[in-house]
Every structure is written in C-alpha cells, then in structure tokens.
Design goal:
- By secondary structure, the protein is an alpha/beta fold.
- It has 4 domains: 159 residues, VC0802-like (2-Layer Sandwich); 164 residues, 3-Layer(aba) Sandwich (Rossmann fold), CATH 3.40.50.150; 169 residues, Transcription Regulator spoIIAA; 186 residues, 3-Layer(aba) Sandwich (Rossmann fold).
- It is elongated, with a radius of gyration of 35 Å.
- It is built from 19 helices and 30 strands.
- The N and C termini lie far apart (88 Å).
Length: 783
C-alpha cells in the first residue's frame, strides 16, 4: 500500500485497493463465507474482521450486501505513531483535500490497543486536529465535525504503536438497515440476527423449500432478516446514508450500477415465514418494522404463546427451521420453569424440525431437554450468549387417546428416559448427599405436565397396564410370604414408559410414580403424553384412589437441590410397616419418601443380627436401618447424618418404635468429620459390633472443607470405620454408584486383617431383580 493517494493516481488505486470489513467477535468465519458468496476475492479472516480485495466496487458491494459486517473500510495510509506528535505528523502526510471539501464535514473513530496512546478520545482529537489544521493552513477555513452523517468518516486503528488510517465507506454501522422503528425490551442487532440465521442453516433450508418459524419473535428482527434472505433483498437497500456518499473518492455511476443490480435481484419468498409472540405490543412493533422493510406480505404474524399450536400455515410442514431468541433471565423472565415448558412445547409442535435458540450462556437452557449443541458464541447487549442448534426429536407412531385430566395437581418434571441413563435408580439413595444446606424449605421449581392439545401425540397405555397387572400377579406369592408392605411393582419394564412405581400399603394404598429424566434425544412432548397416559390408567389398574397416586421425577441434582422441598398442594404423610416397625413415609414433599425400598435385605439382616449389639448407622438418612436394629434387640446405637430435617425424621422413627433416647443417639454432623474424631481415645467397650456405611455418590457440603466422592474416598472412610469396629464385628458397605469399583487395596492388602465378602446378588430382593445394578454391597468382617 502506498503512503498516500495522490490526485493523479487516486482513481486507479481505488479500483484495486484492499479493503477490510469489521464484525462482531466470533463472527469472522461467517463474514468471510458471506463475502466469498458475494464473489469478492482474496477473502481472509484477520483480527476482528475480514480482508478482501477488489477496490471500490468490492467495497460498495460489501456495504450493500453484507448482512454480518459492521463497517467496511478502505485503508489509505499507515505508519509508526508511538507518540501524539508522531500520530499528528502521520495524519498530515495525507492530502485530505482529495477526500473532503473544506465546506464539508468529518468524523473520526479511533481505536487503540497495546500502544503508548491509550486514550481513544484523545487519539481521535489528535487526528481531527491534524486534518483541520491542514485545511486552515492552506485556506484559512476548515471542515465541520458531524458525528452522525459526515461527508467523510475517518477510521484509525493503532496497534503496537503502528497506525492504520482508513476511509469508512459504511459511515454508520451496517446493522442499521433502516427499517426499525421500535424494538422490544431486548432486541437483537440486525447483523447479529443475520449471523444467527446463517449459522443455523437458513440458506440451506431455503434451498430445500423449508419454512421458518419464530414463536417468540418480539419486534421481529430474526423474521425480517430471514425474509430479506428469502427474497434476496440486499440489507442495504433501505439505507439512505453510506459514508462514501459525501466522500470525494466516490464513484456515483459505479454505485448506481451495483444498486440497480441489487434491486433487480429481489424476488417473492419461496417459503412460508411465520412469527408469533404472546405480547400484542411486540407483534404491533414487528408488523410496523415489516411494513418499513417492505416485507409485510412475506411474514405471517399471530398473537400467541409459544405453548399454543403452531401457525396453521405450517400444518403441512414436516420439516423446517425454528429459530428464536428466548428470554435470557438477566433482563427478562427466563427461569428453569420457562425453559422446561419451552422444551415441552417445541417437542409437541415442531418434532422433526431443526431448532436454533440464541440465549444467555448462563441461562438454564438445559432444562428444555432438547438435543442442542453449541454452534456459535457471541455477545448481545453485554451478555455472553450462545446459539444452540439441533433437531427436535420426532414423536413416534403410537396413537390412542390420552386422558387429558391425568395427574391433575401432581408435581414432577416432564420427560421419560431409559432405565440406566446415568441417573440414580428411583427409590435408591444414590442422589442423597451429606449436604449441610439440606434444611432449606424453599420450593423447588418443577415443570408441570403440559395439558394442551394432544391430537398429534396420542398414546396407547394398554401395554403398560397389562405389564403392571402381570407384575402384580408375579409378586403376589412372594409378598404374602415375606410380609412386605412397601415394594416396587414396575421399573421401566417397557422402555417407552420409563418410570419406577412403588406401592405402599398403609391406612390407604399409596402409589409413588418416579419418572426418570428423559435424555435430550427423546421427544419431550411424546414423553409427557406417555406419562399422562400411564397416569390415567394407574388408579383403575392398581385399584388406588387418584389422590393417592404421587408423581415425582428422578434427575441429576447438585448442591442444595438434592434435599429441597418439592412443591405440592398439601403434604401426604403416612406410616408403613416393616419387620414389625412403623416407619414414617412422606409421599409428596421430597423426592424420596424416607424409605429406600432397595435396601430392604440389608435392613432385614440388621434386624435379625442385632441382638445385644452396638450398631452404628452412617449417612443415616431417616434411620430406618437403626429402627431395624432396635426391633432386633440392639443394646445401643448411634445414627449420624448432616441434615437437620432427616435427623428430626430419624428421631420420630425411633421414638415411634420405643427406642430409648439415652441408648439410641442421633447425631447431626458431617459423617467424615465425626469419624475423624470418634476413634480418638475410644474405649474397647465403646466399639461397635455392626456398622452400616451407605454413603452418597457425591457430596459438596458447605459445612466441610472437602467434598465427597465415593470412588475416590471409600477406602479412607472404610479404614476410619474399621477403627470403630469391634473384633468379630461386621461393616456393611453399600452404595448406588453404578460404575463403582471396590479398591483392590481392600481385598489384596493383608495388613488390614479383614475379610471382604461381596454380597451384591444377596442384597437384591425379589421386587428389584429386574434392575440388579441398582446398588452394590459388601460385608467386611474384622477377626
């Protein structure tokens, strides 16, 4: 690049000059692809933008046609500018009379990075002084400054003390298309919306004749940009100002040729484009913006919620692109409940469609449970955002009417999943944690079952009902012989009905349905329809009152969520009998009932082998195992848990079954901390004959410095228990981590002097044999 353009070679140089287009961070590859599609040459990403060649014609074309660029610059000079004085001298090397008249106007944009001049406003002032001083010296007059629509906009970029001076051909940011009268509360910039459409595959969908929908369209930026692409309307056609229009290097004839070509390229949209929003004012704004853009007849608009049926215009469209910019949560209501309902609605109405959601990276978008992956990261309004794309799973083919009143008033997260999808088995203790924050009574946000139209998602629950009846018959003899009053009758036997069902024979028969969280590859609306179908047939199939059917969900939780109280209209608490004891169970308020049915064989063993023994129950939960030791004649016991709520529950269970408080102690403390101190100076007569160690898989209690990981920490915990175990005693170690591997150190190291007995098969009772991996169990004997 020459040091400056002279009057003799300005026109020739402009015909072949290299240019530079800027864009938002992370959008460079989209801009580069777009410029190549426009036929521009030598396109190459560089910094926060793209270089390309072709001179003035290429610059005009980029200004008129680029949907992603912010500005288009044509560099005219460069050089060292390590000081304000050097910058001033460098700017004065340019003959500015070739670019603007003395009676014209100018503006300066100055950007600096890693340079001695750090203040952009000071740098801009220095550049402006150099330009106007040159005019003053030659004519005694100077151009005016106009920040909005100057005849000449100068762009200076100073990096590592080297300045690049350019003419800004765009004049103002190219995202200003000229159609926006009003925006919603959080509108997208037009060029960002266009970038999202490109990244979401809208051009490919157009070629395939697929429609587009935005069910949360707001003021319509995505719709308008999509319509412009569909109509091949150049985004700059509506602008009445570009930076080159007052610049003396402007070639008006060349510009008019490019402008005419763009106008002739406009066509009717070949596909349907539909938008909706629950806010009528947003739709009014959108309609006005469409009118301004000349696209009022291209886009169909409706005032409708995202949970409503999709627009009738799209009824016959099995595929298409759904794109939307849902609430972020920072400024608009975009909480976990919102995203859960959003996933349900999209799964129901747009199964088989491509989906693209642009939202805050920190928003709880995972609660939508859609198989979306991060395609693009960008900043919008100072918020770090992400574009999530993928196909909404199809709904399947089952068709039979669904009772829409099913599970009315029940709590629980929608969805269904295959057993063993990486979650804890329903009714197990795998998700229980020694979390000291466990006493929060704040309601846990739960997504309610969708109860809208189901014409396209009808489910036949007859196979489920038949399997349930078959299981009941198979368990009848075992149940009568064992005297069991609380048992599992179904555990995802049919993959499409992925729930666990437990029955509790108390004053009334109660049924607890625990739904496994659906993987994102399962159509969420279909999962909900199946859930409603099975809930509808349960009362009649099981001969149980409908208000005694309780729905919950199994999903991965962390921190305080693991113990939070669930939302329910009213609590349902009852007593159930086990080995002659009366145990309190809560069917509504928490994820688990207070009685882990899969650990029944361990409790039975404790009941039969506790006579005259001291029993220690670690991670005691509601102390049902301790109650079993009391019923079996234990001389004393200690139950340790970090949760105040469950310690109180444990004491109620013990008191109800005649346990003397002075002999059967409940300790609220972190278990690992208690173990560290309990063995210090312990007398032999205080050692325990029988210990149950049933820890959670993970725990991140705020009451202790270190978190707990059963795979990593089980050896040290077992060693601590062995210090408290009397000679001849037994430590029962159990956990529900499906990938757990007992450390060889415990079985191969003879220095401990212990005998380890694997009891996995033994610990699985008749009603859990369809799911033998629900937990693992070992007896560790101390000679």
């Amino acid at each position: 690049m020459p040091n400056s353009f002279s009057s003799s070679d300005l026109s020739a140089t402009l015909r072949h000059a290299e240019l530079y287009a800027t864009c938002g961070s992370g959008l460079e590859h989209l801009l580069a692809d777009e410029l190549r599609e426009l036929g521009l040459e030598h396109v190459q990403s560089a910094g926060a933008g793209v270089r390309f060649s072709g001179g003035l014609a290429a610059g005009y074309k980029a200004c008129l046609w680029s949907r992603v660029a912010n500005r288009v610059l044509i560099p005219i000079h460069q050089g060292a500018a390590a000081t304000p004085e050097a910058l001033y001298e460098l700017v004065q090397e340019i003959d500015w009379s070739l670019h603007v008249d003395v009676d014209g106007s100018l503006a300066v944009d100055f950007f600096t990075a890693k340079s001695a001049i750090t203040h952009s406003q000071y740098g801009a002032l220095k550049v402006k002084d150099a330009v106007v001083d040159q005019f003053r010296e030659s004519s005694g007059r100077r151009p005016d400054v106009d920040r909005d629509t100057p005849d000449l906009r100068i762009n200076v970029y100073l990096f590592r003390d080297k300045a690049r001076i350019a003419i800004d051909l765009s004049g103002s940011s190219l995202h200003r298309r000229g159609y926006r009268d009003a925006g919603g509360l959080a509108p997208l910039k037009e060029n960002l919306a266009a970038a999202l459409l490109l990244a979401a595959g809208w051009p490919a969908a157009l070629e395939q004749g697929q429609p587009l929908a935005d069910p949360m369209c707001g003021s319509g930026t995505l719709l308008i940009e999509a319509a412009m692409m569909a109509c091949r309307q150049a985004p700059g056609l509506l602008r009445d100002y570009f930076g080159f229009m007052g610049w003396k290097g402007h070639d008006e004839a060349l510009w008019q040729d490019i402008l005419l070509e763009a106008r002739q390229a406009v066509r009717p949209s070949p596909v349907a484009i539909c938008g909706s929003d629950h806010d009528r004012r947003a739709i009014d704004n959108c309609r006005q913006n469409l009118q301004n853009a000349g696209l009022a007849d291209v886009v169909s608009l409706d005032v409708a919620s995202v949970s409503d049926r999709r627009p009738p215009l799209l009824d016959d469209a099995p595929e298409g692109l759904l794109i939307s910019n849902p609430p972020y949560g920072e400024r608009l209501a975009g909480d976990a409940r919102f995203y859960a309902d959003l996933g349900s609605s999209l799964s129901r109405e747009y199964a088989g469609w491509q989906c693209a959601l642009f939202t805050a990276e920190a928003a709880p978008h995972a609660r939508a449970r859609l198989p979306l992956s991060k395609t693009l990261k960008a900043t919008n309004g100072g918020i770090d955002c992400v574009l999530l794309t993928g196909e909404i799973p199809r709904a399947g083919k089952a068709r039979l009417p669904v009772a829409s009143h099913a599970a009315e008033g029940q709590d629980g997260m929608p969805g269904a999943a295959e057993t063993g999808a990486g979650l804890a088995p329903a009714g197990s203790s795998a998700d229980m944690s020694a979390d000291s924050e466990a006493d929060s009574d704040s309601p846990h946000p739960q997504a309610s079952l969708y109860r809208g139209p189901r014409e396209a998602l009808e489910v036949d629950a007859t196979p489920f009902a038949n399997r349930l009846k078959k299981n009941l018959r198979a368990l009848k003899g075992w149940k009568k012989q064992s005297g069991v009053k609380a048992y599992r009758v179904y555990d995802s036997d049919l993959p499409e009905f992925a729930v666990a069902i437990d029955l509790f024979e108390s004053e009334q028969l109660h049924c607890v349905v625990q739904e496994y969280q659906a993987p994102s590859t399962v159509n969420r609306a279909m999962a909900e329809a199946r859930l409603e179908a099975l809930m509808a047939v349960l009362p009649e199939t099981l001969n149980v009152e409908s208000d005694c059917v309780h729905l919950k969900v199994r999903e991965v939780k962390s921190g305080t969520q693991q113990y939070e109280k669930l939302q329910s209209a009213s609590s349902s608490v009852s007593l159930v009998e086990e080995f002659g004891a009366q145990l309190e169970v809560n069917f509504t308020d928490y994820l688990d009932t207070g009685l882990f049915l899969d650990h029944r064989p361990v409790r039975r063993y404790i009941w039969k082998n506790s006579q005259g023994k001291r029993f220690l129950n670690l991670f005691a939960y509601t102390a049902t195992a301790t109650v079993a030791s009391v019923m079996g004649g234990a001389s004393s016991s200690v139950s340790v848990d970090t949760s105040n709520r469950y310690c109180q529950w444990a004491m109620r269970n013990l008191d109800r079954n005649g346990a003397a408080q002075q002999l059967h102690e409940v300790v609220r403390q972190d278990v690992i901390s208690w173990l560290e101190h309990a063995s210090v100076g312990i007398r032999e007569e205080a050692l325990f004959d029988l210990i149950l160690l049933d820890p959670p898989t993970f725990s991140n209690s705020s009451a202790v410095e270190d978190d707990w990981n059963v795979q990593r920490d089980h050896v040290s915990a077992i060693d601590a228990c062995l210090k408290l175990l009397a000679p001849g005693g037994t430590l029962i170690f159990s956990n529900n981590y499906r990938r757990f591997k007992l450390s060889p150190e415990l079985t191969e190291d003879d220095t401990r002097g212990i005998r380890v007995e694997e009891r996995n098969s033994w610990s699985i009772d008749r009603d859990f044999q369809r799911n033998p991996r629900i937990h693992q169990c070992w007896f560790i004997h101390k000679p």
